[in-house]
Design a protein that fits this description.
CATH class of chain B: Mainly Alpha
CATH class of the largest domain in chain A: Alpha Beta
Order of helices and strands of chain B: HHEEHHHHHHHHHHH
Helix content of chain A: 40-55%
Structural class of chain B: mainly alpha
Largest interface: B-C, 104 and 102 residues
Number of strands of chain B: 2
Oligomer: heterotrimer
Shape of chain A: globular
Number of domains of chain A: 3
Mean pLDDT of chain B: 86
Distance between the termini of chain A: 54 Å
Strand content of chain A: 5-15%
Number of helices of chain B: 13
Strand content of chain B: under 5%
Low-confidence stretches of chain A: 1-32
Chains: A alpha/beta, B mainly alpha, C mainly alpha
Number of domains of chain B: 1
Mean pLDDT of chain A: 88
CATH architecture of chain B: Orthogonal Bundle
Low-confidence stretches of chain B: none
Largest sheet of chain A: 6 strands, mixed
CATH superfamily of the largest domain in chain A: Periplasmic binding protein-like II
CATH superfamily of chain B: MetI-like
Strand order of the largest sheet of chain B: 1-2
Chain lengths: 507, 309, 285
Amino acid sequence: MSNTFKGTPSRRAFLKMSAAAGLASFAGPLAALDVPTVAGLPAANGPLHWLDSGGQKGEFIKATLPEFGKVNGFDVVYDGLPWNEIGTILPLGIRNGSAPDTFNLPQGMEPSVALAEGWIQPYDDYFADIAAFKAAYPAGSFVEGVNVFGGKTYGFPFSTERRFNNALLFDRAKLAEAGYDKIGPELALTYDEMRDAAKKITENSGGRSFGFIIGGNQLGRWGDSVTMLAQRAGAKVGNSALIQGLDFATGEYAFGSDEYVAAVELLLAMRDDGSVFPGVLTINAPQAREFITQGAAGMIIQGPWNVPIWEATAPQFDFGVSPGPVPTADQQNNPVYVAQLPNTGNMMWLNKAAKNPHQAAAYFAWLGSLDGQVAYANVASCADPAIFPETIALADLSERAVQMLNMAERLVRIAPNPMIANPDLSKVAAAYVDPTPNLSQAIQGLFAGQLTDVRKTLTGVADARNKALDDAIAVAKAAGANVSREDFAFAAWDSSRDFTNDDYAAL
Amino acid sequence: MTTLTLRRRLWLSRIDYLFLIPGLLIFGAFILWPMLASFYYSTLDWTGFGENAKFVGLKNFTDLLHDEFFYAAFRRSFSFMLMTVPIQMLLALVLAIILNNKLLKLSTFFRAMIFLPVVTPVAVIGIIMVLLLSPFNGPINGLLLDTGLVTRVVDFLGSPTIVLWTLAVIYVWKWTGITLIYWLAALQTVPDELYEAAKLDGVKSWQVMVYMVMPIIAPFAGVIALISAINALNVFPLIQSTTQGGPFFSSEVMEVYIFRTAFAPASGQFPRLGYASAAGVIFGLSIIALTIVQAILMRRIRRKEPTHG
Amino acid sequence: MADVMTHKDPFFTPRRRRQLVSVLLAALSAIWVYPLVWMIFASFKPNSELFSNPGMIPDAPTVENYVRAWREANISTYFFNTLFVTVGSVVITSIASALMGYVLGRRPVPGRFAIMGLMVFTLFIPQGYTIIPVFELLTKLGLGQSLWGLMLATCGHSIVVFTLLFAGYFTQMPKELEEACRMDGVGPVKTFVYVMLPLAKPIIVTVVVMQSLQAWNDFLLPLVITLANPAMRTLSVGIYSFKGENFVDWGGMTAASTIAIVPIILLFLFLQRYFIDGLAGAVKG
């Protein structure tokens, strides 16, 4: 917490220092940052309590928010927790009144549902001029049904969803030794090559290292990774939450499709070859990330956030990045789809019972300004890229970070989002009960060996989910919502380009 | 004795009632009321937030009957009990018999060592075990590989077929110390003269144990078994701090199931307090039934005892 | 085995046999405490060494883990929270169950059999059954996020067992005790405090020990009440969440764990006799 560091150290220097400090807080280097003093802020009611999923964006918040609080006269409690902890802690906190002032919503929870359950409130009234604030954002950042409800602004966006969330990251030396030295951002492995590479890496190490690793205890990784593989294989399906695996052509869940089955079978094949790190079922994603730098495995399917973390904490680790594997070589340029421009996972929401809404909003205002976004991009890099595109030019990025961002530009498309097309669908989301097992649980069960028939299991999950969605639509309809299953189908969608506001207008 | 009116007797006992207040408040608030409230909650469709609870009658119960995860967790709770209690009781009994020997100088020391895991918080045990049993360079796997007992690392906490056994061993390790104390207490009711007399008669020590000591400590066995059984059904802390019921529910016991449904649902799902309460009611009633059955059995055994002579 | 150990064999004198048993017991004890000892050694290893050096002795011992654990994990706060809850619940439970056990055990109060019956019925209720209403009750009482609420709820776990222990014990005491007091003009409160309680010392020790162990090891209840509020977490919950938040800081975890168990282990070793006597009382009663 010392202020002895003067000047503006580069992003990389900052990261190195963060790494050196381990888990300690490192407001030091950023203390030189010019956080603004906000006039007319009411007195704080206890500390501002901020909860997010940590990671690279968390490093930035953890460093700047206390500084912002210091110049503006309030204390800060920052918690960066893994997603499954947020999923437990937040509902408990909301129930007994100890939830943070502002938070990320648990994964898979539709904001409309949080709104319906009384968790969140709009922050328009805490801004002097909310319209001007929103006008500075790129088009598509504030979307009715995503972070705006009934004209009120609920979710605060600061990073973009256009990100390759499930890239293949690999130990360059190990993959080269296995005979795949040309793999990189422009050239992905095929499924057969990946399986072969994993096998060779394991053999080459004499059993001390393994071809593939995944944080298999963190359930969501299974569903997300496999959905990405399916998309790369050509499935035109939604990526996460309610629309994960939803085929936009038909509006039906497509877990039983060839693309999904082939993706799961690739994982099972690597498992049967003995090429998967033993114990993947007991480690989470950050542990998998840590193990790979210690030489425990050669490949991992993970997001761009690994890049700045590894470059900072394991500078000796020589790794490369590549898009996820594809079944056949001619599918190299198959895109992956995201649901909207702003990253909803990172989005911050204001607790309905927030004790310090003004303080939270004041920090939002800064982070959502060009100044704040540039400062943010310097730290967040390609991990949680800033939502203002102009910051990319101003940020100091490593070679691999640039590769990641270019990969995202080239291959990530914004797909149609039923929630935007028909905001009434939020009532469906509120009534929707995800069946057990869900996609991730089923894949974990298949991988652990308790479930056996891949296609039958996945088709079963799809059927259960289709039924659950129909049930939810019926409940919403009975409550007067104007919704139908057709709202989930976009047969006329041209999947080669982004689905824009114009496309929504044309529906 | 003169018969007093009820009013008079109540008045005379006013100070006694005063004595009862603190205990009854705690009992009422944290045991009796929750029991009754669970019944009420179990008839609701309720996420636990706000006032959106909806009365659904017995629907939660009928749904539970079709929930394979509930069945599995329910069965697993009782399997876990059967996997741990006999081993724990037997191991503790053997140790107790050995440690009960007054001539064994370090007896107190050994007893303390065995007892140490009992005072170690479960969260700490969770951390130790996850590290010790790690398939990647964990010390236990290292030992097994070095000695050639296995050729490929064992994923103790990640393999669905062995995870419950691993947890059972950890559980026995943690709690044997307390069972040991119970057995020692039971053995201390055996008079020293008995051993001496037997020795003079030239009776072999295993015969002393089987024919003379065992009958004396038999009544304690019932109590100890009951305590151990109930404790084994409350294994939530250990499982939550190691596997959280995974992988793919293969170590999910009832309390983990209830916790998951009520407080920590999978992403995309809501807490279902009513549903979890219904599961709790069934679980609770089963345990009460188990207790009653055990009590009846013990009474039968006791009644028979005199004929043994 | 039994034959080998008979007195006929000149080699296996009772003395030698005891020595052999001692050696075997020592080996067993070593295996038994190995996980704890391993953890303490591991807490001095840097993170990079934890998985690369499966041996027990650190190559490059460091206290960095402790510095980090103390600062990041707030172990001191968790420790005092746990102590507060434990001591508070022990005091409340002992007093409440002694009073109730006394009345139910030997006072001719109308309704005491009804109360006793109700209590026996609930004797073995699992925590999973009551946790949801307890959480809701505390929240409604405004105690849902206070250590007082946690302390009170912790009292609930075993109050029935303790009351029955006291009741059983008091029933066996000679009838003349109160008679004598009444003759001497001693009031019922004084009788209880100065005559009955001192006589029930063995049961008090039992209750104190059992409730301490219970409160110290408790997990489900503190988890749902304090997880969302870092300032209130108990040791178990704090260490659990430290593990959940710093999953790659193995060194920090083992250091935090060591800090957490050392005081309780020392306490146990010093007060061992009371622990043993107390627990023994539970079965005898």
